[in-house]
Amino acid sequence: MTEVTGRALVLAEPLSLWGGMDPATGEVIDAHHPQRGASLADRVVVMAAGRGSSSSASVLAEAVRAGVAPAAILLGEPDLILAIGTAVAEELYGRSVPVVVLPIAQLAAIPDGVEVRIGPGGVVRTA
Amino acid sequence: MLEGRAGSGAAFAMRLVVRASEVTGAARLIDVTGAHVDSCLYHGEATLDFVDRLVDGGARVSVPTTLNVGALDLLHPELWRGDPRTAERGRLLMERYRALGARATFTCAPYQLADSRPALGQHVAWGESNAIAFCNSVLGARTNRYGDFLDIAAAITGRVPEAGLHLTEARRATLVLRLAADVPGSLRDSDQLFPLLGIAVGRLAGSSVAAIDGLAPGQSEDRLKALGAAAASSGSVAMFHVVGSTPEAATLAEATLGQAPDAVEEIGLGELRAIRDELTTDAGVRLAAVSLGTPHASLAELERLASLLDGRQAHADVELLVSTGRDVLEAAAERGIAGRLAASGVELLVDTCSYIAPVLRHNDGAVMTDSAKWAYYAPGNIGVSVVIGSIEECVASAVAGRVIRDESVWQ
Lengths: 127, 411
Known about the structure:
heterodimer, A: alpha/beta, 3 helices, 6 strands, 20% strand, B: alpha/beta, four-stranded parallel sheet, 15 helices, 14 strands, globular
């Protein structure tokens, strides 16, 4: 895995990418989400868990194709749907979105807006 | 298969199954007896790039496979009101999945097809969040949340990781959600309770398995469908138990496998009312449409709608639209139900859903629905205002041409 960096976007609530993110712009479109209107593009998205629709893998792959995907996604528990979305994007386009699972305490310690670096082995450091 | 002896398409599919096995920490792969594939809904060119890789690589499904909704109604293409190019790409994607050997069912409710209902304990690979929840909870068949790409990969390889809800221990309810005593009997007896309760369940359960206690036994499949679809919208619910109604929960102790739950919580009248208010984004504007059938209406629901309409016409200024599966529509046509609905001015949409396909004629007002899933996703997907209500309120409103509420069940 190559190293990626980006500014953390800490989501107050889990977001389903399908119905939650516009894959053409990377913007949060879930009307019920407190961060509606925020852009996930190139951000290190931090959320406790994935949520909702099983179509989120397609939305993630399409966002990668369109160049508006998050830089990485950090989760508190494994999410098969997001992991497959990034695996397909890597096969089709040679670009991946690292999906890294962290202990909840470490995840909760990442403040919104800080620079986060994800290196080989999925290590996360806040600059 | 990984080495490509079954073709490069099958090898690609197997790589995804192996990746899934790594993520889930499974010790081995197991066989599935069927699949339900959600990947046939167009989400941009990436979805076509993916299936082209499979088709060009000579892949075919190896188990009976049903298809979820696509981007448009192939039987009634004239209903499409969006960009013709998007319709063409959506249609192409649906055709590509047929070319892999999957059945052209194009429904989010494959469990309504008599020959597509896996038996208790059978292992399958299903996509589509409401179908996954129904499969595990109501049929007692076993599936994980096979999202886009992995669903068709499992259908091609016939294999899935032995993990999660394929294992008995993961099906145990770790959370008990009890309907509080202040929920009146009239609401408990109403279909309206189930989608609202589902939203509460999804929020409280997240991705864990909950046992819902306090409902009368023997709840109908349509009510459980509404509950599960809502729970899988507000949370990542892939399985729930309803004590006395779902097959692995004859008693609360069966649902919890005799173990103490991690938590017991109550869902009260105030919370249900708050969810109804929250899902109603704008009750003050003109009523433009009434959208029913999310997830796809069953034959029983279509029959109920025809009875409630009882020959009355939908108001001239209100579009009354119902989404259903093409196989259910055919059965409804044979029984004269589709004709009765059409005579009342009901538009029947198949193969897709009215919050995916641009089919609504009027966008100058609110859309009323009985579905919490529709209410949850439509404002973001198609930018409409929503009013949620019971099926009775929806029908009364469609006929009157304005939102009509019946508060009596809430007293």
